Amino acid sequence: MIAYLDLPSGISGDMFLGCLVDGGWPVAALQETIAQLQLPAGSWQITEQAVMRGPLRATLVDVQATVGDAHRHLADIRQMIEASALRDAVKVRALAVFTRLAQAEAAVHGSTVEEVHFHEVGALDAIIDIVGVCAGLEALGVVQLYASGAPLGEGWTPAAHGRIPLPAPATLALLTAVNAPTRPAPGPGELVTPTGAALLAELAIFRQPRMQLQCIGLGAGQKDFAWPNIARLWLGEPLDGGQLVELSANIDDMNPEFYEAVRTRLFAAGALDVWTTPIGMKKGRPGILFSVLAPADKESILADLMLRETTTLGVRVHQVHRHEAPRDFIQVETPYGTVSVKRKWVYNELVGAKPEYDDCVRLAEQHHVAVRTVYEAALIAAHGASQRQSDMGGAL
Q1: What CATH number was assigned to the domain covering residues 327-391?
Q2: Of the four, 181, 262, 323, 388, which is 20 to 30 A from 382 by CA?
Q3: pTM above 0.70, yes or no
C-alpha cells in the first residue's frame, strides 16, 4: 500500500489523524496506541465525529490533553517513547519526526537540539498526533507516503514567546530542510502547523505517484474557513511502469565531495535513483558519468538542479522503460526483536527478501551479537512467514 496526502487546505497533526481514521483505521486502535505511552490517567482524550466542511463530509479527530502546557526537551520525549510498549518501527519513526522538530526549533531560537524546549509541539496533544500518525500509517500497511505541495498562508499566530508571523518559523525551517514545494494558500491563516510540517518532512516524498486507488480518507481541520478545511489521504496500490527519463552528464572538474550533496538534493526533488560511473575523458583525464533516473514530469526540475549544482555545461536526457518487480514490507519477529523485511515478488512467487539493515544494526548492538547473526535470523523468519502466507493463498 502507498498513500498520497492531498493538501488543499494544509495539514496539522489532528487533520492527519482524521485522514487515517476516515481511511479505515479505527479510532479505538488509535486510543489503544496512545495508551501504550503510559501517560497520566485522565490526562488525554481522543474522540471522532463526522463533520461538514463546506459541502464535504470529513472525519474530525479531536485530541484533548489536560496537561498540555509542559515544556519538554527532546530527551524527555525520547524517554517517554522508548519506555512505551509501541512497536519498534513506530518508535523509530516517531522519534525521527521529533528530532526534525528539535532541529528546526533549535535553528529558529539559536539553541541546540538537546537544550531547546518544544513548547507547543512538546505538549501532549502534539505527542499524541505524531505517535498516532506513525502508528496509523503502519497499521494501514502504508510503505511509502507521498504528498502535494504545502499551501502556506500569511498572518500572525500566538506562541509561547508572543505573536509570530505566518508561516511559523519552525514550519518554514522544516520544509526548507527537505526542499519541499510550496504554493499560495487559499486564504490567510496557519494552514500548515509545525507538527504537520514535521510529519511531511520526515515521512513524505513530494510528488504524486501513479497508483490504483482503493480508498480515500478525509480529515477535517478544527476551524471553518471560506473553503473546505480538509486534507485527503489517497490509499492504493502502486502502478508499475510509467514514463521515465535518464539524465546524465560527463564531469571531470568537480570536487568529489560535492557529489553526495547533489545526490541528496536530487532525491529530495523526486529522483528515483542517482549513481556515478568512472569514465575516461579527453586528454586522458579521469571523469565521472553522473546519472539520474526519474519520472518524466521531473525532467526540467532535475536538469535545472544538475546544471546549478554541478560543474557540467550540459545534461543529456533519454527516455527509458523498465520492468519493475512488486515489493512489500513485513515485520518479522526474531530472538533479538522485530525487524522490517522487504520482499520481492515475480508472478506471486517470492524471489527475494532483504532485512532492514538499520534494524539489524540496532538489535545487534542491544544484544551484543554480530549484525550478520540478526540479519540471518530475520531472513529465516521472513521465509517462514512467506511460506505460511503462501500456504494460505498467496502474496499479500
Answers
A1: 3.10.20.300
A2: 323
A3: no
